[in-house]
Amino acid sequence: MSQSDFPPAQLLSMALISVDVVALRLHQGQLQVLTAPATHPKATFPRALPAGRIDPQIDSELEQTALRQITQLTSAEPSWLEQVETIGNNHRDSRGWSLTVVYFALLRGEPEKDLGEAEWLDIGIQTTACHDPQLPDLAYDHQSLLLTAIERLCSKVQYSTLPLYLLPEVFTLSEIRDVFNCILGKSPPMRSIRNRFVGGNILEDTGEKRYGSNRPASIYRMKECDCAQLFNRLYQTTQ
């Protein structure tokens, strides 16, 4: 019997194909990763990244599988989702040869309902530019998958609009600066943030103000766009 004689579901089960998701959020100034219980009896640590098999009956594309792994743990919908890498070999999974497609997701910081098995673990950025981040212990090879996604985030926040996808629907420029500080350990000058995001016609002013100990801060939202916009250079202070 050739592979063409097997129905799609059997082919996928033979191949050990899965989708793993690194879902990140900012919560009270802390970068966190979404985790699920590690179900394998020989798992070295109790928590793992959201991961699961492709279901050909309901998943018409890989992104649907990735989204399903997130929504099984939280009601939050990712504001950003992109494919990071594909890994396949005969030693990463004790069950045999396996292949996984790794996705990277950003979730906005508003409080959301999490299901009972979900747990958000802190990621510590101890030095600037994300060198040697303090990563939580995760089962399998998931800590290395998390590190790859963190490196992608640290790079792209410097030359794209990606920082905005970690913020609530409305925010101040100071909160954009706080995203840089949380992820990189430092931030560009406020004038650079204003020039890039307001001067670049990326944000719109809601006309509302946020009042605190300093002068009132304008509240912005992103203009509608289905992709992260790129800039032609890094911030000088984050190089």
UniProtKB/TrEMBL annotation:
Keyword Oxidoreductase attached: no
Annotated Pfam families: WHD_NrtR (PF21906)
Classification via InterPro entries: NUDIX_hydrolase-like_dom_sf, WH-like_DNA-bd_sf, WH_DNA-bd_sf, WHD_NrtR
CDD domains associated with the record: NUDIX_NadM_like
Keywords, comma-separated and alphabetical: Hydrolase
Gene3D superfamilies: Nucleoside Triphosphate Pyrophosphohydrolase, Winged helix-like DNA-binding domain superfamily/Winged helix DNA-binding domain
UniProt keyword Hydrolase, yes or no: yes
The NrtR DNA-binding winged helix domain, residue ranges: 164-222
Molecular function GO labels: hydrolase activity
Protein name: NUDIX hydrolase
Source organism of the structure: Parendozoicomonas callyspongiae
